[in-house]
Design brief:
Layout lengths: L2 E2 L2 E2 L27 H6 L1 H4 L53 H8 L4 H10 L3 H5 L14 H5 L10
Antiparallel strand pairs: 1-2
Length: 158
């Protein structure tokens, strides 16, 4: 036993019971006095044969709320027939699609097809204003002193 500042640091305090006629507080189970906390915490081990909820009452219970993947139904709809057959999906079904390599083959033009495609592309205004690899040329005609860098904007200050 150790002492700190003249007092005992022992965690158990032994003193006489001041009121011996009052029963000690707490959860007391007959026959399991030494295991009361374990009995309260692990009831599934100690009460393994306890009856469950009857089948006709399970639809009213909320025991499924925190279970992942369980579809939650209102108890009024629990016994109803399903609205749609199993495997039903909303929306329009999709059909087979074209593969990427087939699309790239269709876009590659050679010979006369390439020439005809260039003629069709020349009809667009963006083809003449913005040729591939170059920016938009607006065709402005600036005075000569602007190109030299001698131009100033605004009113000069004194």
């Amino acid at each position: 036993m150790s002492t700190v500042l003249g007092k005992s640091t022992n965690s158990r305090i032994s003193r006489p019971d001041p009121i011996p006629n009052i029963i000690a507080a707490g959860h007391k189970i007959n026959g399991v006095e030494n295991e009361a906390a374990d009995y309260s915490i692990r009831q599934d081990v100690h009460l393994a044969g306890a009856p469950g909820t009857p089948e006709h009452l399970k639809k009213f219970r909320k025991s499924h709320v925190n279970q992942p993947g369980v579809i939650q139904k209102h108890h009024g709809m629990a016994d109803d027939a399903p609205r749609f057959p199993p495997g039903y999906a909303y929306g329009k079904g999709s059909h087979g699609s074209e593969h990427v390599n087939e699309i790239f083959k269709a876009g590659s033009l050679s010979g006369m097809q390439d020439k005809f495609n260039d003629i069709k592309e020349a009809q667009y205004a963006s083809h003449t204003k913005e040729p591939l690899g170059k920016g938009l040329t607006r065709g402005y005609n600036w005075p000569e002193h602007v190109n030299n860098g001698d131009i100033r904007f605004g009113v000069g200050s004194n």
